[in-house]
Amino acid sequence: QKEVEQDPGPLSVPEGAIVSLNCTYSNSAFQYFMWYRQYSRKGPELLMYTYSSGNKEDGRFTAQVDKSSKYISLFIRDSQPSDSATYLCAMKHQAGTALIFGKGTTLSVSS
Amino acid sequence: DTAVSQTPKYLVTQMGNDKSIKCEQNLGHDTMYWYKQDSKKFLKIMFSYNNKELIINETVPNRFSPKSPDKAHLNLHINSLELGDSAVYFCASSPEGRGPETQYFGPGTRLLVL
What we know:
The structure holds 2 protein chains of 2 kinds.
Chain A: E1 4-6, E2 11-14, E3 19-25, E4 30-38, E5 45-50, E6 54-58, E7 61-66, E8 71-76, E9 85-93, E10 100-101, E11 105-110
Parallel strand pairs in A: 2-11
Antiparallel strand pairs in A: 1-3, 3-8, 4-5, 4-9, 6-7, 7-8, 9-10, 9-11
Chain B: E1 4-7, E2 10-13, E3 19-25, E4 31-37, E5 43-50, E6 53-57, E7 64-70, E8 73-78, E9 87-94, E10 104-105, E11 109-113
Parallel strand pairs in B: 2-11
Antiparallel strand pairs in B: 1-3, 3-8, 4-5, 4-9, 5-6, 7-8, 9-10, 9-11
């Protein structure tokens, strides 16, 4: 079993839809949870991070962590065509340096 | 201003050749990384350096050798290239390499081995 599991999709939604992206993980030592967005032929860029169970909101984006279930989610409200990208969840041990990534979910938002 | 830059952006070469990819960051960060992204977009850590010192060396063939001449640069040299080395290689940097700090990624180098 991989440390981080993420459904690669692809996921296609109409503009304005609510999108839910999810990852599960097996290593309870992970303390920091991040979502990176990667546009085609670009490097990943940090979208959001959390380090405790619960919700964190930033504009149209909400990151949710459930440590007891080892499950994290990213919700995108009022999705826009500009949200079309690959979304990668990433996790990190407290003392570690490297990010452990999921496989990424490719999202397409049509206008 | 480009925070993390990589050269070249594209690299097409024959099996058996030796090639290098360069990375530079102008963010003043202490920690730099090399990640490999395969054709299925799976991104995996290869190496991590903190202040020119190697701190992570994942299970990577020893044909891959990172070199950090100073803390702003982390280059990747690959000997005897193989077909399976074809991938996108991303350099990244972060302030210290600890905690929830953001890692900043370069634009990637697309390597194709023929």
